[in-house]
Amino acid sequence: xxxxxxxxxxxxxxxxxxxxxxxxxxxxxxxxxxxxxxxxxxxxxxxxxxxxxxxxxxxxxxxxxxxxxxxxxxxxxxxxxxxxxxxxxxxxxxxxxxxxxxxxxxxxxxxxxxxxxxxxxxxxxxxxxxxxxxxxxxxxxxxxx
Length: 145
Hints:
Elements: E1 3-8, E2 11-16, E3 20-26, E4 29-34, E5 39-42, H1 46-54, E6 62-65, E7 69-72, E8 76-80, E9 85-88, E10 95-97, E11 105-107, E12 120-123, H2 126-138
Antiparallel strand pairs: 1-2, 3-4, 3-7, 4-5, 6-7, 8-9, 9-12, 10-11
């Protein structure tokens, strides 16, 4: 497992790379969102995370989406150009769309009763979503269509 460090004069935080779902910019701050449902607002701009992710062995795991978001591609489940959203899910809680309402998620049978907090939805511009969709479609190996 690969780790990266976040250091400030008052904080040292070690984060397992595969637990990062996304990082979203909020002015001079960023929200770091983890798969366990925790998030932390940090006093860094998004380029700080982008620069650090580029140094990782699996640097291609993270994709910059527009000006305000970096996503971990292993958690991207749905890119919805109409609603302009990305839906992220945990690797243990895969979801399927309900047939009667395609915008409502339900757990798979084996996940019934589990906490649904592992599903995140983030609004993103249509152009940024198109670019992300193209990038994910062009990836080779390990992912099937």
